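User: Hey, my collaborator sent me this sequence without any context and asked if I could get a structure. I don't really work with proteins. Can you help?
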Amino acid sequence: MFEVRKDEPDYAFLKDTTSKTVNRYGTPIETVTTDSELRDQSLNINADSDIGENPNRYKQHGFFFTADNCIACHACEAACSEKNDNPPHIAFRSVGFIEGGTYPDYRRQNMSMACNHCDDPVCLKGCPTRAYTKFAEYGAVLQDPDICFGCGYCTWVCPYNAPQLDPVKGEVSKCNMCVDRLEVGLKPACVSACLGKALEFGVIENKPENRTQVETHIPGFPDTNITHPNIRFEQNKTLNRDMVRVDSTAIKYHRNDDKDQHEPVLDKKHGTKKSWGLATLLASHENAHAMFTLSTQTVMGAFILLVIGAFALAPINELKASSGFVPLLWVMVALIGFGLFKLNMHLGKPHRFYRGFNNLRHSPVSREIAGVTAFFTGLSGYAFFNLFDNSFTHLLAGASALLGLVGFVAGSYYMYKLYRIKARPFWDHWQTATSFYGTMLSLGSLLIMVVGAFALDNSLALIKTLSLIAFVGLIIEAIGHYAHANDLKKGAGEGQAAHYEQTTTFGKTYQLRNALLAFNIVLTLTITFTGLSGVFGILIGLLLATSLIVQSYLGRIIFYALVIPTTMPGAFFWKNKGFVEHARESGLADMQQLGVAYEKHHAFKTDELLQTIKETSVSEIFAQAKAVVTGK
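Assistant: No problem. I've predicted the 3D structure and written it out in structure-token form, which is a compact way to encode the shape of the chain:
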């Protein structure tokens, strides 16, 4: 157990004596019933099997923040980092601020924030490795870095920037509510260290001493309906009508008198000048995701056209009967294999890839992985068995194709579903589906068209058919892009800010993508009626292939690079995306005290990977597989 000092001050102890039965969301504050088997179990903190004697052990606890009292001294950050032995670039609790007005009527509101141990923790449901658990004890949402393989999906879905992905270790960690201190009746370290009594802690909905409010909103805090966070606020000082963020995010908070609260709105702090932003795009951490989704969707589209399209399209049947069919299948296997390799090496711990199947019950990431794996297996079997020509291998090829179809349905759907994230409004739109499935049709058709042009003596009919399918895919994509831009433009908050960045910071690249999309629509429609032939036809085909690939890549990397999440406000240097990028580009990240680290875990040495694989026993892998199947 945590050792309580003899001179521990009185304010460091928990003092809740009574509590309500349910919180404002209707969730019971008592986490489990009195006869539950989850009671009277040890948390095994530091391998200690003792059970804490806190009388409120099975009640939901939460933080209470009084904004008027916070002086941004960062004592809470320091206490938290010291207790958890965090490196300089990781902070489970961080202090940001927003400001408004000018001298002498200048107002500033500081905000100290950590994990809110939500009633509906999206991090827990999203994590594919099941590294998160919501405990009956104190309602704490705890995360095990040793189970995490560093995909970072929890950092996408959390609206409060609570999970911290360490770019050096390649794993996520977060606030653990200081459950070891709670077990002995002490408040968390950050609360005990607060100089201005801005932070308090206790059973949720209990009003701390000398407080007048128990609110769920404060300027700069995201929508509570996403997760039902266990934090309450007090803020009595009058703020300016507009409160701006001092970080690089194009967001400010405007007072809505009808709702009596500040709401996020667009802040055009970067002006209206259009730039390329290519350096940022090409250096994006999410390039691996762009390559994976594009390559996988290309192969999925080609596979569906070959398997399903063959029932209605004679040119497809002609290609399947040619000598180019099997090589085409192996090109598809190689292409999706490349995408899977890029995605796996993008993980913080690529040697732990098999843990991605652990949360099939809840995580769309696990389901996507399972679906794509089934598709890859089915495609590989289909390619292999088509090497032989007998009734038995034909049967096995058909079974493999069926597995591939099942994998396509599950994999493509959850590939789309995992981006419908409330904390990332730019992605949370049906346009994500039109982009993904439109890409399948256009790039899938292009892949078959290229092989068919070489495999068939007369490929004119095939080229015209596939050009029409590509045209349909591009039209679907264009409709989605138009509706998406229109909805974001008319919307508010982070979604509108993302569209603003899209048309300014990446404005020229965005315009190029749109121009290429329009050009490709015209070109594919033209080829549908005229076909391709001769040297001129080859040149036009090369132009289409280049234009379509560039358009698809630019659209996809923009999709990843400019999304603005509903995270907490940062400061000039700390938790400021703009400063982080500058520090990495200029070398300031070498100064540890700045709290910026390079993404070093991706430079995973081959000998280290092989050594880790050797240390991972076959029995451990089978145990993981058994856990997935049995759910235990």
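In plain terms: The two ends are 29 Å apart (CA to CA). You can pass these tokens on to your collaborator as they are.
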